[in-house]
User: Fold this.
Amino acid sequence: MIIQILSLFPEMFYGPFQNSILKRAQELKLVEFRLINFRDFTLDKHRMVDDIPYGGGSGMVLKPEPIYRGLQFAKETKPEAKVVLLTPQGQTFKQQTAEQLAAAEHIILICGHYEGFDERIRSWADLELSIGDYVLTGGELAAMAISDAVVRLIPGVLGSDESAQKDSFAGNLLDYPQYTRPAEFEGLCVPEVLLSGHHARIEAWRREQAILRTALRRPDLLAGAALTEREKQFLRQELDLKI
Ligand SMILES: C[S@@+](CC[C@H](N)C(=O)[O-])C[C@H]1O[C@@H](n2cnc3c(N)ncnc32)[C@H](O)[C@@H]1O
Assistant:
């Protein structure tokens, strides 16, 4: 997969992209990041990427021309690349969006800054994504979050493919509670079943805990989870007890 990122601050990406899973994914040649500074596509001597808003108001607005030319350059190799505009006004980025993007061969992320984009830039995007209901200074942190969530889903990137399948949100459930050694610490004990060595019982317990945890913390997700009748009954019993 090729991820091209149009940004005024490409150096912001160097730390996050040169560590951990993203570093390994590049070493394995499963992903290639290309950082493009759209200031390089200005034609005036001051290299201006922004200007005052028509109609007045505070702040500066990103001009269309440098981003347009930067986008044309990014699309040269693959004109059908998926173009994603990062904006707090976009649809909220979720695990399902990450799964869809992970199947693409080539995506282009456009990071805004200042007061935002000239509205015409929106017409060149296939998708507008927000990473949550808050306003960041620029799209760079959003591009990093999205790149990380997408790349770890590319087959072969994680040590074991299973670990992505069992993460929170896969199958619309949160992850089950995890424990490691010691079995007791400061009076807090690991549940007996996890020490039993009984694989089937452990799997059943984990599934129940994932369902219960989702019901208590993120009931909005449960409607999309495929629960058996027995699991629904378990949940009804547990919730009765807990309320
Ligand atoms: C200061 S923000 C501009 C916000 C704009 N005035 C608005 O209210 O929609 C500058 C840039 O940061 C990025 N950004 C800010 N918050 C974001 C979010 N929640 N998700 C994705 N990108 C975001 C966008 O690229 C945006 O153009």
